[in-house]
Amino acid sequence: MIDTPSGQTPEVASLTPEVPSEAAPLESLKIEKGRGLAGLPWWLFALVLISVWVGFVIYLDSDYREAFTFIKSGIRLTITISLSAYAVALVIGLLAGLGRISSNVVINNVATFYVEFVRGIPMLVLIFFVALVGVPIVVEGLNALGVWIEGLGLGPIAEPLVALQNQSVPMTLRAMIALAVTYGAFLAEIFRAGIQSIERGQMEAARSLGMSYAQAMRYVILPQAIRNVLPALGNDFVAMVKDSSLVSVLAVRDITQIARLYAGRTFRFREAYVTLSVMYLTMTIILSFLVRLLERRLRRHA
Amino acid sequence: MPERDIIVIKDLYKYFGDVKALNGVSLTVERGKVVVIIGPSGSGKSTLLRCINHLEVPTSGEIWIDGEHLHGKHRDINAIRAEIGMVFQLFNLFPHLSVLENVTLAQRIVRKRSPEEAERIAMQQLERVGIPEKAHAYPSQLSGGQQQRVAIARALAMNPKIMLFDEPTSALDPEMIKEVLDVMLDLAREGMTMVVVTHEMGFARAAADEIIFMDEGVIVERATPEELYNNPKEERTKLFLSQILHH
Ligand SMILES: Nc1ncnc2c1ncn2[C@@H]1O[C@H](COP(=O)(O)OP(=O)(O)OP(=O)(O)O)[C@@H](O)[C@H]1O
Ligand SMILES: [Mg+2]
Q1: ipTM of this predicted complex?
Q2: Which among B55, B100, B98 has a CA at the least distance from the CA of A213?
Q3: Which atom of ligand 1 is nearest to the CA of B40?
Q4: Which residue from B90, B96, B110 is facing A209, i.e. has the nearest CB?
Q5: Rounded distance, CA A119 to CA A141, Å?
Q6: For the segment A234-285, what is each residue's pLDDT rounded down to a tens digit?
Q7: Chain B neighbors of A211, CB-CB under 8 A
Q8: What is the C-alpha separation between B82 and B75, in angstroms, rounded?
Q9: Which atom of ligand 1 is found nearest the CA of B43?
Q10: Could you tell me which of B236, B227, B186 has the C-alpha nearest to residue B205?
Q11: For the segment B155-188, what is each residue's pLDDT rounded down to a tens digit?
């Protein structure tokens, strides 16, 4: 699990474009030519068929329609939380990934600590941890910082920091932070593998031209590395959309939480969870399909 | 340091764990001279070259480039490297950038030249190496020989004082070797200071002021091409020359 810093694991390199991601659907999608009907992805047809069929049921059956109308109200939150958490996770992941290959001992250890910490804890527990332990600690830290700045006589800057209160951080924001912190660690490993997949000669050529390490990263290594890992990043976005359902444990009203509320109130468990499952399935199939398209394009223009 | 000596190396040692890649190398190169380094595989040729632009950090010893100490406290390694062009065996072009962008990138971000000026200089250099028509191609669309010439143009566009070449033709198909050597010969005639690791004896004879024979991390012999070929002093040199001249 614990990898050595930069340059010492060149064998990781060759693996990269196929960085395995958490649990990407359609991973098994390939049409095997020459095998006739047996080579077609029947499972995919079945998945799509079920989705379409449930769509009809929702349209025709008033119980299902009611469940859908109810659950639908959470879709916006599910989407915003996934998108914003993913955007933040990209930034955290890039920084942590760079930290993982840094030759600076402190930075390297901090980044590795973070990645291994996240990987060693179940995601569900981590969400509780970040939202209910991590956020309060950070708020206290900011308060203390505010007091210190106030001591320096910089009242106006210190005020908002001192005034910050734990209760005033909404659960939705905590949930978003929790997902971002969790996925930041996964994305860090993708970025790290992507950077290490770039031949050493690229960095050496850039440095020999007088570029600094940062310039070489920015203009030479990262553009190539990111292109190589785009499919893996896409897969992790799909995985995050699914894992966003975990934030329902914080009583955040995403589609999962609303489906639970609906089921609990009406006892229509079947309607609630069939509808919910198909909603996730539709999102993940469409997104995964886009990732596969992207992958194919990248491969063609390799 | 006397002005004349643009590279001064004193007692250079480089160990990789137990491997003694350089075992006490001292060497000076005068401005405008062409020095060719030969020697068996693993003798430390690449390591020596890479120490000169600090891609490899020596275990001990000292290097001055144009009077500037390479390990000094306040030296700016990026500024020193910008004055030293390096050409690699495997070209190391940036595959995501066009030929023109390969040649302009460092000019813009290191030399801070305007895009127009960088482009103008890039085109001059591409013309010099004979492939201005490939400016908008990508490295993967070029032959090995063309790629290596672009790599040379990329280094030259920085207006370096010194050019280092590490077996620039050994990854090339035979029919492409000449086009790269011709560019290097022109460069030598124009008075560029060059340190070249190569076993192309035709080039060494035509361009080198001096040939250095290395073995097991030390300089075994140092002489003009004629002296070395016709009259090598050391047994090891004789043995090595008889091997490469027969192939
Ligand atoms: N990064 C490294 N890590 C460990 N050992 C190294 C490293 N680089 C070089 N060496 C070792 O140092 C010695 C000298 O290597 P160097 O590449 O300088 O030889 P060379 O003369 O250029 O050989 P060649 O003709 O094969 O290119 C070799 O034994 C090599 O295995
Ligand atoms: Mg070598």
Answers
A1: 0.94
A2: B55
A3: 25
A4: B110
A5: 25
A6: 999 999 999 999 999 999 999 999 999 999 999 999 999 999 999 999 999 9
A7: 78, 106, 109-110
A8: 13
A9: 21
A10: B227
A11: 999 999 999 999 999 999 999 999 999 999 999 9
